[in-house]
Amino acid sequence: MGTAAPARESPDRGAGVARRACAAVPGRPKGECRSAPHEGRPVNSATTLPALTALGLRRRGSDLLYTRRGLLMFGLLAPVLLWFGVIYLGSLLALLANAFFGLDDFTGQVVREFTLRNFVALTQPANVDVAIRTVTMAVAVTIACTVLGFPLAYYMARHARGAQKALLYIAVMLPLWSSYLVRLYAWKLLLAKEGAVSWLAGQLHATAVLEAVLAIPGIGGPSLSISNLGTFIVFVYMWLPFMVLPIMAAVERIPGSCIEASGDLGAGPRATFWNITLPLAMPGVAAGSIFTFSLTLGDYIIPQVIGNSTLYIGQVVYRQQGVAGNIPFAAAFSLVPIVVIALYLWFVKRRGAFDAL
Fold first, then answer.
1. What is the pLDDT of residues 108-162, one digit of tens each?
2. Which ranges of 69-225 would DSSP assign to H, the alpha helix?
3. In this structure, are residues 114 and 328 in contact, taking their beta carbons and an 8 Å threshold?
4. Which residues of 53-81 are buried (b: 16+ CB within 10 A; e: fewer)?
5. Distance CA 207, CA 137 (A)
6. E strand or H helix at 102, and its extent?
7. Residue 86 class from Cβ within 10 Å (0-12 exposed, 13-18 middle, 19+ buried)?
8. For residue 256, what are the contacts with CB-CB under 8 A and spacing of at least 6?
9. pLDDT on residue 244
10. N or C: which end of the chain has fewer CB atoms below 10 A?
11. Does the pLDDT value for residue 8 go beyond 50?
């Protein structure tokens, strides 16, 4: 009994399969698929089936992601959330765990035994003073940035146009384009006893006023570069852009119809500002205060370079961890600004701050 000869594929059928596979390639003009160079010759459809299979899988995947948007968002956010969970939350948990460990007074090694001794040490008067001083400075810097930044942000949002608005944008953002340390040491030179500020005070015959301010206990010192007042000035300079931009964004979102309606109802510019503009801009103020408050609360470089021997939370943590090697106590003290910032975020969230971020 003879074996049947293998069926030979029709040239026309093979060419048709090839044309369909060619037309399925995204971005290829249709004219290129009408007369393929191999048309008229036998074509093995096995070479086109993998391309068709891959195309079908891509279409199925696209349809799945289109119909299930949650799956698409999960795929986009999964790497970021994984990184955030492992690096950030993992480091916080490690910090929290170290806060409950102790330190051997003889060997200086961390003793991994549960203890509350570090938290008891936080209640000592010296440590309480450090916490109060840091929070007070953060609140003062936030208030100063709000007072200085609101008029500028309001002008940029409501009155500046074209090239003027672009120049103001650049003026606000320009300090952020240079190095943090360069700006800090530049202010160190400006506030020094022989610096530009003292020279300007002498030219204005205000040296006596400057010396009287520096003689005030608690804020003064030998010069502005070695005083709490100088630390405050540099803090305000560093974080002011972080207050201006959120306020400007909030003011730009205030509908012009609200301002017009207030004027139509007989309210003057002052009444409109206090009753319409300011309340609607408060989410921007709260959003900016998140940056100024938290950045001041955790910074330790500015008080180290500008200021006297007065300690802030960041300096205490740095010294306990880097100099003394007391990692458990540094971890316990690090939880203080975390708790303070968490309470502050809860407060500003009630003010709608996250809507203006």
1. 787 788 888 888 888 888 889 999 999 999 999 999 999 999 999 999 988 888 8
2. 69-83, 90-99, 117-121, 125-158, 162-173, 180-190, 196-203, 207-214
3. no
4. eeeeeeeeeeeeeeeeeeeeeeeeeeeee
5. 26
6. strand 102-103
7. exposed
8. none
9. 93
10. N
11. no
Burial degree of 142 (CB within 10 A; 0-12, 13-18, 19+) = buried
Give the residue from 52, 98, 64 showing the smallest Cα distance to 333: 98
Domains of the chain (ranges; CATH) run: 125-355 (1.10.3720.10)
Look up residue 241 and give its two tokens: 């852009």
Retrieve residue 264's tokens: 């139509």
Q: State residue 345 phi and psi, 5-degree precision.
A: -65, -40
Residue with tokens 């968490």: 342
The set of residues, in sequence order, having a beta carbon less than 8 Å from that of 65 and lying 6+ positions away, is 71, 72, 75
pTM of the predicted model, to two decimals? Answer: 0.74
CA–CA gap between residue 173 and residue 156 (Å, rounded) = 13
Residue 277, amino acid:
T
Secondary structure of residue 104 in the 3-state scheme: coil
As a whole number of Å, the end-to-end CA separation of the chain is 84
Tokens 């100063």 label which residue? Answer: 144
Cα–Cα distance measured from residue 115 to residue 127, given in angstroms and rounded to the nearest whole number: 19
